[in-house]
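Our working data are protein records whose layout never changes between entries. An example says more than a description, so a record of this kind follows.
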Amino acid sequence: MATLCYMEGAPKIAYDREGKGPLVVFMHGIGGNRGNWTEQVAYFGRRYCAVAWDARGYGDSDDSPATLKFTDYGDDLRRLLDHLKADKAHVVGLSMGGMIAQDFHAHYADRIATLALVDTNLGMAMQSEEFKRDFLARRLAPLERGLTPKDTATENAKALVSPHTPDELVAKLRASLSALRVEPYKQAIHAILTIDFRASNPSIKVPTLVIVGEDDRLTTPEQADLLAATIPGARKVVIERAGHLSNLEQAGHFNAALSAFLDRNATLASQVE
């Protein structure tokens, strides 16, 4: 059973933790929280120290004390590794979490054992103007009209998942989206549009796995191909019958793919007792 813990400091960061062994850190997307990784924390906590955080501004973590820069997330991840007394971690990030992972490598490469980049891409700054307009319109326009995240959660949840996703999972995702805090969410949206990892990713030397749902319409399999092509030696795995949240939609297949990758490289990460 995972334990809710806190990393003190500004901002205070909440995280779930289960197990002992090589450290693996899971990071959620822009509409998520640490609860999106519950099944992975339980599964990997049997033989790893599995940690899933609430990024600043999400869940039980504090909001940013100042205007958010995208690099703030990576600085928080460094603080978390220091807090856990770990030199290196297996870093797993979904969507925005995958972008945080890439940014973390650009600034703290020596703290990474492996990278698993899940349903993510090379950064939003490189996307087409049409894509960025749609991204902003879908997420910000309703809030500017006075709607709440809960008001838009049903529509946004259905847009993220595969048509094969069962209703009970869509309901869980809807609850996650409903829990968003408006101002931190707006800050994250603006910050995510500033990043582009095409120049920094070729320097990645750690083992890297790119995972994507075959039905992901937000960060598509084609974008996953582009991402993998920038990282020397990166492997790509496609999760069938999954959309943008492949770890939730097809947890068994996702866990098997990630487990095969982590188990080959387990000893590269620091042991956390």
Q: What stands out?
A: The chain has a mean pLDDT of 96. The two ends are 16 Å apart (CA to CA). Residues 106 and 200 are 6 Å apart (CA to CA). The longest helix spans residues 251-265.
